[in-house]
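Obj.: predict assembly geometry.
Materials: sequence records (below).
Method: joint structure prediction, all chains together.
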Amino acid sequence: MSDFASKPFSQIEPADYAAVGFRSGLEIHQQLLTRKKLFCRCPAGRYSDRYDAEILRHMRPTLSELGEYDGTALMEFKTRKEIIYRIQHETVCTYEMDDTPPFELNDEALDRALAIGTLYGCTLIDELHIARKQYLDGSIPTGFQRTTIVGVDGSIPYKNRQIHIIQLGLEEDACREVSDIGHQRVYLTDRLGMPLIETVTAPDMTTPQETAQVAEILRRLVRSTGLVRTGIGAARQDVNVSVTGGTRIEIKGVPRIPAIPLLTYNEALRQWNLLRLRDELRQRGITPELFKAQVREVTRLLRRTRYQPLRQAIDHGLTVQCVTLRGFRGLLRWQTQTQTLFAKEISDRVRVIACLTTLPNIIHSDTLSETLSSSEWQALQKCVASEADDTLVLVWGNPLDAETGAKEIMIRAHEATLGVPSETRQALADGTTGFERILPGPDRMYPDTDLPPLRVTLERRERIKAGLPQPIWEREALYRQLAIPADTIEALAVSPWADLFLQAVDEWKLSPTRVAVALIQYPKRLRKKGLPIEELSAEMIRRIMVAVRDGMLTADGLLEAMETSLRNKAWQIPPLLPATELQAAIDAALQQTAGMQNNLARQKRCLGLLMQNNRGRIHGAEAAKQVRAALEEAAARVDRKG
Amino acid sequence: MASDSFKGYRGSALAVLRNFGVPIWSDVQIATRSGRFTGIVLPRSETADDLHVVVKLRSGYNVGIAAEQITDMQITGRREARYQIPEKEFPHDPKKPRVKLLGTGGTIASRLDYRTGAVIPAFSPGELYGSVPELAEICNLETEKLYGVFSENMGPEQWRGTAEAIGREIEKGVQGIVIGHGTDTMHHTAAVLSFMVQDSPVPIVMVGSQRSSDRPSSDAALNLIHSVKTAAESDIAEVMVCMFGPTSDVYGLLHRGTRVRKMHSSYRSTFRTIGDIPLAMVSRDVITPLRNDYRRRRNDRQVHLDTAFEEKVSIVYYYPNMQPDIIEALIDNHYRGIVIAGTGLGHVNKPLYPVLKRANECGIAVFMTVQTLWGYVQMYVYETGREIMELGVVPAANMLPEVAYVKLGWALGHTKDLQQVKEIMLTPIAGEITEREPSNGYLILQGNIPEVEEFISRYRK
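Observations (raw structure tokens):
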């Protein structure tokens, strides 16, 4: 057996991941930088928690194009949720409310998606077909997301290999969830309909660290184009994880890349532990076929319990169901993730499917914590005729929910005999994952009959290709050749100034290091001084650089010129020191250093003083020449006197 | 023309499929000049171009591949879609009322046809039970498909047929009738049925949907539940339209068939009672009447059918600078009735006077309604109105233009005598003319007004 389950996260080696067959892939959702939304003309990127009105809807499953109901769809229908949408007049129109058919696909968004697809080296699709991808959780009021594939089969370089990009999609973003309590889920609709690209990689990553690194490369690559939005929520990644014998599990909505390693480790650990749980069940003779469980309502029996959550429930007229899991004794305490037990898998399901969102929503006889008294457990065992090696699980709620909950407990326990159930999981703050919903299949896709197919002409592709930025890995290779400071390479590769850098170096023949530092480090320094660096325009920087090229500004005056320009909100460079003033400054420096004997040291000191007092206004080489000349002249004078 | 194995394909796309011997539904591997694709070849929509082959990829996405780019196609299998709404036998409960659902078309319960993008109605009780099982809690449902047309193709023939079908069902003793109908002209049909089917002992409920039922957010299921509940349980024995009250899934409204109109091209709550208040609210649990002056349900099986209809009737929507030739054309084409939707209180311009006079002389019945929809025709206020009446144009009170149109057709079906036609037109039969417009009969709220915003922030509309 592998050490995988016994070592802590920090000590696990790539070989350990290889031993359990860790595989991981990414689905990265990234908002595009457009003025308007994808299928309507609402303004893009305006978020606020304020809202003017609410509407209420329900979702019902429908048939896929191939005539089948999707598993997730049916599950969501079981949950019977009331969905409330909060609407702000300025950011949402009747399209998002599903009261108006879609307008034509936003051309600006499509151009941007095609550009990124080209950057991935994808085969672009000749004719786009808008699909409807069902989401019955209510996150989109139509009940489906309008989505289309713009390219397939791309790749990006990573280490010494290629990571395969399966497909690049263009789709509308969903609502922001506000709350999900009991049978009511509330959404804000401002983000709804924002254009997104979805980048899907193959499961080519073999350690959690690789997954995070590839996510970072993809993030930097799309950012380098300037075609995407940045900021909180503008990019979200879904991470797929599987281990040998396990199942492809999708962890949804990972907000930050640094969270990926721990989350994927925990998911691999969970799968590995669930497989061991299955083996344990087999050893106990519990197979999918021989699994036994039963349900019995026990409300009356527990009506005097001193365990408060149950007592309150019963006092409020709720019912309590008892599920007996034959032969499961102790297994609800089976570890799944870091500090997480199998009981949580069951509780999660009950929470989502039966809408029993107040925790604890189950208690069980394997627990070590104080719940029912031992005499109550004994009475229950007698009532449901359970044996010593059984586990009892209690769930409570209104009659319908308690019944759904009890069924779900049996379903999840039965799935333990099979291994790892297919599902999507949510990323939790502590680096573990929790059940979100059953993994949807291709059956939830069907064509959008509201919009005709859209041809992507060859001319359009050529135009996009011509305007494409250089991929970051090519930029970085060049920067290393130019030997710019190591800490500027990655930042410059994704910077909006990358093209300006090339022009300054190639065309204006400025020093690559100077330019890289000016473009990457100086803005940081200026920000520290509290200056609004977002106001630093390409035009300002270009004119400052051109001034250096033309000898109107010295290279070490770049920072000051940027600062002055920012402060004055317009391009400005300090004027060069006129000859008479330069002479006066040199004289002053000579005077200040008059006592120094060592000529070379004095020369250095003089120069230092000059540059310090007149940064950017005198050319270093020119000043050095003049100081040297003045010192030589002074020495000559002394010689003549002597 | 492509055979069924190449359904929808034409031109170069068809040539490529034929060349590689790939019929639709083939599971294929396709090589193109720019890449490879694996998936199922789907039929193509008839209205799409002839340059692309549609493939459903393994991910479920469809893509169109330029035929001229395809260099190879290899068949690896075949998978044909079978559209089936899970059909379960509609349970029979002798204690529940009998409701008949008559289908004329529209998208009330349906499945998707990927080829044309059209929606195929799910209609048998079994199919309906499969997609809206809640119906079985309300009634024993029987269904009959009368027509399968979009509502714009409904006309006198279908109106008569529907009225006769309603008559048959009432004689058989059903407790309520639901009519599935496309929404675009549902108010025309509701109005004409109000005249053709009089004194019904049971509710006659027209229903449709604004979002087809192949969508998870469809209003179809809830509209169907509301309408079936109304047919089974309500004591309102009139022709009604049952559609969403607000856009939220909260309640439906029952509108009198002669006062209702579709008022938005796509909103769920598109049907509004005009110039009056609706008959009732209906939710899954309860029907709440909003007025008391409706015809009550009876236990007999008596109904008065009167399906006469003259088709040579037209509506003329007046606009400034309208030329007389429009009306000349109607006269020359032997139209027998004209409903004018006039401006304001019921006006048209002076250049039309001679032709209106000629229409009157030719024995054509001309009635005036208002294009403002709300409010009465009042032709005494201005001289223009008085002059127009002199020409034989009859003001039609607050009858909606579409209602006046179908009523005029129905009236002319009975008599050619203009005086009799006028009497029929101006005698209300089913609430098409009301004596008064209640003060809450005209409520079009305007956004951003503080009190309106307060209202919509408080209620889910």
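Conclusions so far: Residues 3-281 of chain A form one domain.
To do: check interface contacts against the pulldown list.
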